[in-house]
Amino acid sequence: MRTQVGIVGAGPAGLMLSHLLHLRGIESVVLESRSRADVEGTIRAGVLEQNTVDLLVETGVGDRVKREGHQHKGIELRFGGVGHRIDFDALTGGRAVTVYPQHEVLVDLIERRLADGGDIRFGSTVTAVEGVTGDAPLIRFTDASGAEETLHCELVLGADGSRTTTRGLVPETTVRTDHAKQYPFAWFGILAEAPPSSDELIYANHENGFALISTRTDTVQRHYLQVDPTDTVDDWSDDRIWSELHTRVDGEGAQIKDGRIFSKTVLGFRSFVCEPMQYGRLFLAGDAAHTVPPTGAKGLNLAVADVYVLAKAMARYFATGEKDQLDAYSATALPRVWRAQHFSWWMTSMLHRMPGAGGFDHRRQLAELDVVTRSVAGRTLLAENYVGTPLF
Ligand code: DHB
User: Fold this and answer.
1) pTM beyond 0.70, yes or no
2) Are 105 and 245 in the same domain?
3) 180 φ, ψ to 5°?
């Protein structure tokens, strides 16, 4: 088998690159170890930056996000039992975010790739990637029927998520530096059949820990609680979850609405960046290259920004043979990655309770939230980064 770009992973980065390349007349094959049902059914975060929505719409895959996504023109930061609105519309000149679950973006991209004759191999496990420092890389994989196949290509995208194997092809220490930060907590995520508790997302700082009120539809809500990283779903009964959500969020202008919980998950929490994001003809994008903690919902948006840069650089390479933009990929993409790292870390540090933190730490946090929400400059800084700065 032969193609121009071999793509490992059918997540946001892999599928979006395949789509953007197709629009520029470049062929790719996407290899994905999971089944289509698994990819399309795994629940992830749900906030799309304005840039991401614009790119989906401009490239012809935005009909459903426009129709079914919920535009949010602000969020509420809640602390000391009082809500403070961050008005994106006024602070960013009319920009907004859209609540539309990540797996729905994947459904839309897969449908479009297949309609355009795209080649996505679900159930295909990559066993080796060879020759990325030469001119003729190849990807060995076992397909869904168990047959061994070889895909020859000119460029390789490693977009296989945070449990990536492609990142390991970049030699550690001599070429690659990993920057990682752990956090002493996790998020407990639920989906519940209930009416929305609020028109906009609520990010709540409370002495018991952080809580986030989000939404999916008029009848399904998505909420998160800061928990101990060793907690499991069995530690949290429905009663305990609702009681804790009420404690952390209810107050002036907010009252959480209970419902039947039908999904519980514990989400890991980590900041990570691998530098560089290129090794010869291998390019890393999305979680294969970097992970953000979920506060701020930057993960999918960063993956899309990475491949936006790569699609242009790859198009230039295939049209002219020039590798300058390809070789500038890390330098082009990393400043945005680090800005998103800073924003996600900042939101996390401002809103979560650090284990062992005392009265001073909590009061300092409240003062920071007060500084940010009281000042137009503070609110603007938060709003600009939340809705996302222009792509490049
Ligand atoms: C959601 C997830 C986030 O990480 C966030 O910051 C906001 C919303 C969500 O899944 O709805």
Assistant:
1) yes
2) no
3) -130, 150
